[in-house]
Every structure is written in C-alpha cells, then in structure tokens.
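User: Hey, my collaborator sent me this sequence without any context and asked if I could get a structure. I don't really work with proteins. Can you help?
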Amino acid sequence: MFFVIGGANIDIYCKSNRELIMKDSNPCKMTFTHGGVARNIAENLRFAGEDVSFMTAFGDDYFADALINELMKRDIDLSFAVRCKGFATSTYMAVLNVDDLFLGMNDMSVISQLTKENIDFLAKYVKDEDYLIFDTNLDRELIEYILDTVKGTKICDAISANKVVKLKGLTGKLDTLKLNLLEAEALSGKPLFIETETIDYIKQLLREGTGEVLITGKNFLFVGNEEGVHKYIHNAYREAPVNVTGAGDSLIAYYAHAKARGLGTDEAAKLGIVASILTVDTDMPVREMTVNFVREEAEKISIEKENY
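Assistant: No problem. I've predicted the 3D structure and written it out in structure-token form, which is a compact way to encode the shape of the chain:
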C-alpha cells in the first residue's frame, strides 16, 4: 500500500512559441491541467497498479471539486484528505521556454492546513511494510513529525530548490530522497559543477543516514544506496519535449513501485527513467500507462550504467 502526502493543484502551463523575450509579451500555448507533485505521484502509482491513499488539503471552490472527482475516478482513496473552508485551491503556473521550465509560480497556502492531528489519524493505518511518499510543500515541522511518527518506507520528493531547505537536518531519517541538481545544490549549500562533487555529496548523505539518494538530470539519473553510487545515462529525450513538468513525478513513482515489488536498483532505475521519457511526450503532467507498456518501451531505449 502506498500513502502519499502533499500538494494537489490546478496547473496552468504557458509554453512559449519561441525563445522568451524578457519584459515583452510572448505568444504561447496555454493549458490547464490537474497537478501537484504529490497528486501526480499518486496518480502515476495508481496507473502502475498500486493501491494508493492520498492525503492533501483541498480548497472549497470549483477547482477542488474537479480535483476530487478525477481522483475518485482513478480509485485513489481520499479518506485522509481535508477540505478547508475559506481557502482557494492550490494553483501552480509554469512558464515553459519552448522545451524547458523557465519559471514556476505557486500559491499553495492551503496545504499549511494539514496538522499533526491529521498525521496522527493517518499513522494509525500505516504499517511497516507500506510506503509513504511526501513532497516538500509541507511545513518543515510537519515533515519532521511525519518522519518521527509514521511507519513504513519513507520517500521524499524535494520539489524545488526553494523548498528543499526544509529537509536540512532531517535527511538522515529518510529511506529515499529524490533531488535534481539545483535542489541538491540548495540542500548542500555549495555548487555541484562537476560530477565528482555530485558523487561526493551523495556519499555524504548516505554517511549521514539517508538510505537512498536519487539525483536527476536531463539525460541521467544518479542512484546512491548500500550497493554504491551508480549513474544511469540515456539520450532518449526528444529535442523538443512536449512538457517536462511531470517527468520527475513519474520517475519516482515507477521507481518506488519497482522497489516495492522487490525489484533491484537497475530495474527500478530503468523503469523510472523510461516512465519519465514517456511522460514528457504528452502535454499532461501524468501519462496513463501500465507497467507492461513502460517495460515494452524500455526495450527500445539504451541506458548505460557507470559505477562509482
């Protein structure tokens, strides 16, 4: 069983038709979708065939109704979610510079309405064999309380360089931590310009007690755990991906699914990488795809492995 805690948003994507010109009006294609890192992870896990319970804080507006209805259609359990009167639904806006994220803006104040009492209620149902995934939209105090209170394998998706600093002093309590390079730099407090610096930081986190560290890049994934540090490299992204926003969410979801099913690091890494590659080829942050489909597509993609 997977329990997921974090944000559920209305996402607004503005994809520029050309290289952005600052302080000017830029033509774009605008789309509205349901998103939020934790929500995306929950939906990806459901498509992967997992039973999922999702804890979040919804506003009391029309957008909350839309989010709830879609999640219920996916058979995602919302028993632990709360609805907050007087709050707007979380909203995220991404400005995409042709093929990459240029700027993200968000209003996620409603998520602060999740309390320790909500976590206490959840904790009664989480068993040692369950998996708990949360994002750093949560307040630092609540993150620490989750780590100290709830059972299960604990996985954190760092989300952003701005929010990852909430994890300082807490990473040793995590079973798995997923970062991108910008988030890793923000958490470490130093630049990671060269590969050896990234590897050294992964090893530092492992020494400090983090069970497993994932650091993502455009064409690679570092995984550090008790087996050592590995780098998985691919060149499968198209020159102009449709939407990169949900790539990391699908990667950690399918990676965690593989680990929960007892698969090794190599197979989990490949499943996560291929899921992210397939996701960026759609204009939605989550792509509906079975594990069998991801595995079939993986046969077409070459991924090299380097050990450190």
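In plain terms: The chain has one domain: 2-307. You can pass these tokens on to your collaborator as they are.
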